[in-house]
Write a structure and sequence with these properties.
Blueprint lengths: L2 H18 L10 E5 L2 E4 H13 L8 H21 L7 H19 L2 H8 L3 H26 L6 H10 L7 E2 L2 E9 L5 H19 L4 H8 L10 E6 L5 H7 L11 E3 L2 E11 L2 E9 L5 H19 L5 H8 L3 H4 L15 E2 L5 H7 L11 E4 L6 E12 L2 E2 L2 H31 L2 E3 L16
Antiparallel strand pairs: 1-2, 1-13, 3-12, 4-9, 4-11, 5-8, 6-7, 7-8, 10-11
Helix pairs in contact: 2-3, 3-6, 4-5, 4-6, 7-15
Length: 450
């Protein structure tokens, strides 16, 4: 008998044993698919359903069928990736993904204890069970990337793609705004800064004398993590404010930092655990209060800058370069760029509430009066003026205004076609047996049932 056929027979026998080897009062596990030399277990689907629920992931279709097909595709991709010497998955990559997955669970379920209660096992057991799952996810992701790495689109292809779209297929683009801003952060008085530093130093001494760090975080911290005793979970250097990360990564387990100043305020940090290039810390954040007189003076200064711009003694771009505290937009003449799309266009829901309220009242090139806004990154108050650079009304996507959108749509279509072709070729060459329970699923890819 051929070796691959022998493997299949053994797997089928094992499936039968697995199914009948449990008493009726226990959860029955079984092999629900054989794909080449790999198998898909019923328990795999149930585990992923639990994970999705823990992360708040929902589906409009049959979630179990969707998970099942994703696992079938993954098995094909992983098998190919394991034969490719250029695709390597390191322990560090797996551990980073494990920590991120547990962090997601904690965000949605509330705490580490709730995660353990939900899954009925310790965090260590959960990570052990997820290790191979995440390894396969990384392998399949890298294999997908390799399949589509050389796919490109040309302007002429994008134009042809747009011409061939039916009217109903052309996407609607919501109203978009392009704007520039000047921001000023009211300076914290020396008296207020010293007050906060002294308070944090007193807390540090009490912790070093044996009192509980988490208790002080719950009672005093201005960070949402206060309800978890200041616990931030595991994070890498790039995930935090540079000053915060520099202090955190220089601590030993159990050690408490000196007072650390960041863009968010002032911190005490306690190291809990280090794993490779990630650390787990608790912190106490105290945000300084802005003196009312200083705030008024900042508004007055901003008002005088606006008057100079309106008198045309100063351009908005020059004013932004000279006076704005926002390091990301000031070098660009105040023009704000979306951090995700890297475009200067924003839909109204993407804007901070105070900014959207003022922008929608302006005509093109008009400047607002100064207003107070909350910085979405560090949650601190700023004095802001905005200028409406351009307003693009809602419309159907066209090549003149929306070429990047249409380019991405066509590129995605070509990539999906390449993946579909690759999967179809592997399906034709691979032994596949699907359990009858899953033969009526509405599959995205054909040829699973032979």
């Amino acid at each position: 008998m051929h070796k691959s056929n022998l493997i299949v027979v053994i797997l089928i026998i094992f499936s039968s044993i697995s199914y009948h080897g449990f008493s009726q009062d226990k959860t029955i596990d079984q092999i629900i698919a054989v794909i080449g030399g790999n198998i898909v277990m019923k328990s795999e689907i149930e585990a992923i359903v639990l994970q999705n629920q823990a992360q708040g992931i929902t589906s409009e279709g049959d979630m179990k069928c969707e998970i099942f097909e994703n696992l079938l595709v993954e098995k094909l991709l992983v098998a190919e990736a394991e034969l490719d010497t250029n695709i390597v998955v390191t322990d560090n990559q797996i551990n980073q993904q494990l920590d991120m997955r547990i962090d997601y669970f904690m965000q949605h379920l509330g705490s580490e204890r709730e995660v353990e209660r939900y899954f009925g096992k310790s965090i260590a057991q959960l990570k052990s069970e997820l290790n191979d799952v995440i390894r396969n996810e990384i392998l399949s992701s890298q294999m997908r990337s390799k399949i589509i790495e050389n796919i490109k689109v040309t302007p002429s292809e994008v134009r042809q793609f747009h011409r061939n779209l039916s009217d109903s297929e052309i996407p609607m683009v919501n109203t978009q705004f392009e704007y520039a801003q000047i921001t000023m952060v009211p300076k914290i008085s020396e008296v207020e800064e010293n007050r906060i530093k002294d308070e944090l130093r007193r807390i540090k001494k009490r912790v070093e004398d044996g009192e509980n760090f988490s208790m002080f975080a719950v009672l005093h911290s201005d960070c949402p993590s206060a309800r978890e005793g200041g616990d931030l979970g595991f994070f890498g250097r790039a995930q935090m404010d540079p000053a915060f990360s520099a202090a955190a990564f220089n601590l030993r387990p159990g050690q408490v930092s000196n007072v650390v100043k960041s863009d968010f305020g002032f911190h005490l940090i306690q190291m809990i655990e280090r794993r490779g290039d990630r650390v787990r810390c608790k912190h106490i954040l105290l945000k300084p209060r802005v003196d009312a007189e200083i705030k008024v003076n900042t508004v007055t200064k901003m008002d005088s800058i606006v008057n100079e711009i309106r008198k045309e003694n100063l351009t908005f771009a020059d004013a932004a370069r000279r006076f704005s505290h926002d390091k990301d937009s000031r070098t660009n003449g105040g023009v704000v760029v979306h951090p995700m799309s890297l475009s200067s266009r924003f839909e109204i829901n993407d804007l901070p509430p105070e900014v959207s309220k003022n922008l929608t009242q302006l005509n093109t090139n008009e400047i607002s009066d100064p207003f107070i806004a909350i910085n979405t990154t560090n949650q601190r108050e700023e004095i802001v003026v905005v200028r409406l650079v351009n307003k693009i009304e809602a419309h159907k996507a066209n090549l003149t205004l929306d070429y990047p959108l249409l380019n991405d749509m066509f590129l995605q279509k070509k990539e999906e076609a390449a993946i579909q072709k690759w999967i179809s070729e592997r399906q034709a060459k691979t032994y596949i047996r699907i359990d009858p329970v899953y033969q009526n699923c509405d599959y995205k890819f054909g040829q699973w049932i032979k």
